Amino acid sequence: MTELSIDSSTHLVDFHCHLDLYPDHMELIAECDRERVATLAVTTTPKAWPRNRELAASSSQVLVALGLHPQLVAEREDEISLFERLALETRYIGEVGLDAGPRFYRSFSAQERVFERVLRVCAEQGEKILSVHSIRAATKVLSHIEQYLPRERGKVVLHWFTGTSIEASRAVELGCYFSINSEMLRSPRHRAMVAQLPTDRLLTETDGPFIMRKGGPIRPVDVISTVAELAVNNRTSEQDMRQVILSNFTSLIAG
Ligand code: MN
Questions:
Q1: Which residues contact 23 (CB under 8 A, 6 or more apart)?
Q2: Ligand 1 center–CA 124 separation, angstroms
Q3: How far apart are the CA of 183 and the centre of ligand 1, in A?
Q4: How far, in Å, from the CA of 207 to the mean position of ligand 1?
Q5: Where are the domains of the chain?
Q6: What's the gap in Å between 174 CA and the centre of ligand 1?
Q7: Distance CA 254, CA 63 (A)
Q8: CATH number 3.20.20.140 is the correct assignment for the domain at 12-253
Q9: String of DSSP letters for 84-153
Q10: How far is the CA of 69 from the centre of ligand 1 (A)?
Q11: Cα of 18 to ligand 1 centre, how many Å?
Q12: Is 13:204 a contact under the CB 8 Å cutoff?
């Protein structure tokens, strides 16, 4: 089990970052520890799990998640068996989910098979926390969660959620959290959807290195600007928003 020694000095939360896709993976872990950014290091294939876990083993802030990215399912569907074997080793699962965007739609039935097995193994083992991708597939993702992962068997964080406001309400009813990144807050429609979410379900993320900021790919420490943007969007102070995110993160991982 990966355990986080989260304490009152934790400052920020990046609940979805691909640390292993940066050239300076080790330096990023050190940066998260130094700057006290609690970070969920998601992975895209179960083959990346052992190395990620090893590198973050002595970190006080980095949690590592076991993943099988929907965009890789076309070539890697058979890795679901490895995923199932490794699932007992961690409480954190991600990146998993469904992607019905034009580039990945062809593998959609395979993605559904994989996601069902992911949810079933999580339900069986219990107490997992999942970071879930749902591009153009929010309704399908929510139906899968409803069908295969009973609320008392696991917690879901919807990452970069861009569903409709109706889909967002359904996700809230299902108990989902939402990790918000800076790109989401650029769209007026998504800003309005985010403002409608219950404050106690909000988390922040970078989805680095897939989002760029001035000078290169976004890093976990950069969530500080997302906290500020989220505060403006939700009409509260930056300080209050930062506290809310920290307290949501604490209750999420508390059990
Ligand atoms: Mn991602």
A1: none
A2: 25
A3: 13
A4: 5
A5: 12-253
A6: 22
A7: 14
A8: yes
A9: HHHGGG-SEEEEEE---STTTGGGHHHHHHHHHHHHHHHHHH--EEEEEE-TT-HHHHHHHHHHHS-GGG
A10: 8
A11: 7
A12: yes
The C-alpha atoms of residue 254 and residue 25 are separated, in whole angstroms, by: 27
| Cβ atoms of residues 151 and 174 within 8 Å | yes
Ligand 1 centre to CA of 17 (Å) is 7
Rounded to the nearest angstrom, the distance between the alpha carbon of 247 and the centre of ligand 1 is: 23
The Cα–Cα gap between 59 and 2 comes to 10
**Angle CA 174–69–253, to nearest 5:** 45
| Confidence at residue 2, expressed as pLDDT on a 0 to 100 scale | 45
Residues in the chain: 255
Query: Residue 4: what pLDDT?
Result: 54
Q: What is the pLDDT of residues 154-209, one digit of tens each?
A: 999 999 999 999 999 999 999 999 999 999 999 999 999 999 999 999 999 999 99
Instruction: Give the 3-state secondary structure of residue 42.
Output: coil
Q: Which helix (H) or strand (E) holds 12?
A: strand 12-17
